[in-house]
Amino acid sequence: MTLRISSVSGKGGAGKTTAVILTAGELALKNRRVLLIDADPRQNLAEWWKRCEAKDNVPASISLATALRQNNIEKLMASQEDNYDAILIDAPGVDSVVMDTIIDHSDIVITPIQPAQDEIKAVGEAAEAIATRTDVLDRSIPQAVLRTRITIVNRHLEEYRIIRPFVQNLSEHGYNSVLLDTELIERNCYREIRSGLGTLQMLEPSEPVLKARAEVNAFVEELEQLKKEHRGETING
Question: CB count, 10 Å around CB of 236?
Fold first, then answer.
């Protein structure tokens, strides 16, 4: 069965597109056929792809499509789902009918978060959007909250310390929100791939890259475990 993951956040710069690229690279490394769908009008994912093409770094086993309208997303999902092992969607940053459609076609919704008030607020807004659709669909769609760009400095911020209790509070109030154990540390290689160097797994395996790859592998394993735990689950049991 095709694994369908979307990356959703109303906060620009949270790491939404990077999370999609990292997930795609890890799944492709496991010989999965991956389709990326750029549904964000800012087209950051498509720009990354163009830079990869220009530098002859297009990753194997990964394809890209752009779909900015509801009917285009629905057509893509209907026509391509059987052709890929995983479909990853970079969602728009604003609430819309398109966002509802993306959530409807997701098994998991990733919401990246950095230690900042606006990003914490964006996690709550995404949780509300997911809950609204799960009520309509009567289907469990977990929100995987991923801490990104973590540093020694921002680990000491109050905003970092309240991330865990904030997500726990969402869960206790009926939202299907899970804080992933894996954190993505602030690393140059995560920025470098955005300049057209392909996926993280295509970089020269230096010590920093190997550390990053271990993080991403752990992150994707958590996503796959989350999918197994929620397979076929409905809200009303």
Answer: 4
Structure token digits, residue 168: 């726990």
pLDDT digits 0-9 by tens, 148-197: 999 999 999 999 999 999 999 999 999 999 999 999 999 999 999 999 99
> What's the pTM?
0.94
Strand, coil or helix: what is 207?
Answer: helix
- Among 182, 186, 176, 72, CA closest to 123: 176
| CA–CA gap between residue 42 and residue 198 (Å, rounded) | 19
Contact 26, 85 (CB under 8 A): no
* Separation of alpha carbons 3 and 137, rounded Å: 18
Looking at domain 3-224, what is its CATH homologous superfamily?
P-loop containing nucleotide triphosphate hydrolases (3.40.50.300)
Q: What is the mean pLDDT of residues 130-150?
A: 95
Give the pLDDT confidence of 31-78 residue by residue, as tens digits.
999 999 999 999 999 999 999 999 999 999 999 999 999 999 999 999
CB contact at 8 A, 52 and 110: no
Burial 131-166 (b: 16+ CB within 10 A, else e): bebbeeeebbbbbbbbbbbbeeeeeeeebbeebeeb
